[in-house]
Amino acid sequence: MKGSNKLHHRPYIPLNRMDEADKPYICRLAPFADGFELEFLAKGAENQVLYRKRGESEWESVKAKNRCMRIEHLEQNTDYECKVTEENAAESKIRLVRTGAVPEGAVVINYLHPEDKAYSFSGRYLCSPSLARLEDGTIVAGMDLFGTAMGQNLTLLFRSTDNGKTWRYLTDLYPFYWGSLFCHRGRLYILGLSTEYGNLQIAASDDGGKQWSAPVTIFYGSSKLCDNGGMHRAPMQMVPFQGRLYTTCEYGSWDMGSHLPAVLSINENEDLMVPENWLCTGFLPFEGKWREEAQTQGDTMEGNIILAPDQTMYNYLRWDTGKALKLKVDAEHPDAPLEFHSIATMPVTNSMFRLFSQDGIYYLISNIKEDGQKCDCWSCRNVLAVFRSEDLENWEHVRNIVNRKDDDPQLVGFQYPAYLFDENGLSVSVRSAFNKAHSFHDSNYILYFNLGAI
Questions:
Q1: Residue 440 to residue 382: CA distance in whole angstroms
Q2: Within 10 Å of residue 29's Cβ, how many Cβ atoms?
Q3: Structure confidence by residue, pLDDT tens digits, 106-117
Q4: Dihedral of CA 167/172/178/180: which sign?
Q5: Biggest alpha carbon distance in the chain?
Q6: Tens digits of residue pLDDT in 272-313
Q7: What's the rounded Cα separation, in Å, for the pair 308 and 286?
Q8: Residues 6+ apart with CB under 8 A from 254
Q9: What is the CA radius of gyration of the chain?
Q10: Distance CA 395, CA 403 (A)
Q11: In what order do the strands lie in the sheet with 313-320?
């Protein structure tokens, strides 16, 4: 076994499981009402897909005509086991999948059964959706794997060449977590962390996400076990303004009880792969005017960079139900400390939201609590909606992306949206928990919605 420090893997296999390297590998699952789609990697030319109802002894077998197969006419809302074999008797690990219908308009990018341990070295649940569109129209979708007391350091990439109608596996990135995909001057980048609260790092791809450069550390982090916390960020968007690219991050941890906000930026003409080219505002402590006006510290994280109508730049962060923390960014001095502005009133729950502008209109994608909906602020995540505004203050409800308000809010959630908004309209990928998920938080699907013009 030769040493390797590359970031991309097809697939990533932990060193203590290298005996799996020459075996077939199931790289994507996508259930539907009475079956599932299965995509696999294999070195042999002759392959069989085997499946059976979970707990049964006999396998059904189908010859694989290609590396992506649909298994149909199964029992609905039922657990199945599946695997892939080669003519030399090598076989993949057994994977779990549960049949079941998805919300109207949704396409499954990827699925992970809550009891499937295929990625348990990193996590048991799908997280951190991210989207980027390449110059040729291909969409690249990212997600990672999280779980309590697990590595939280594997990112999976998929691609679609038909505007999100179908998805295929692209590659794994390891170690990478909380990664934001974005394109800049014809090159695909991913900005994220090495692991939860780890190093802030960036990598680049020149072939549409198949192969990646070694990651470059921009700032060192720590770990979730450290009393002082470490780097934190969701896959938030990059925003261009006056020749710079802006995005957000935080420093802290849940154990600390706080995530202190900051803004990252870089001159758009400089090399994004050089750490010294990046500037950080520093991390704003909860004190002074902020503490006086806010009184209690909310869940300060997952900031959105936005230009107000007067061209002032702000960072809007998750704070509380119906509220967002609004911090002013000094665009003339991009490494200057952030300045507390106010606690803004917005139609949001206590969850991550997306705030962006397009053609002079502001859009907000957020979870909402509808009248009569029985849930507390943490579990109000089973309705996801789009709003628009002309002034960042008065918000008009445009439409619901998905509405499962009558489902158990402790078990169903559609949250942490990523978006694309271009000539094809608005598209959203969503971290989703339903169909016997462990909880609303522990997501078993990443779904894609093509909403079109709004």
A1: 8
A2: 23
A3: 999 999 999 999
A4: negative
A5: 70
A6: 999 999 999 999 998 888 888 877 777 789 999 999 999 999
A7: 24
A8: none
A9: 22
A10: 19
A11: 301-307, 313-320, 323-329, 339-345
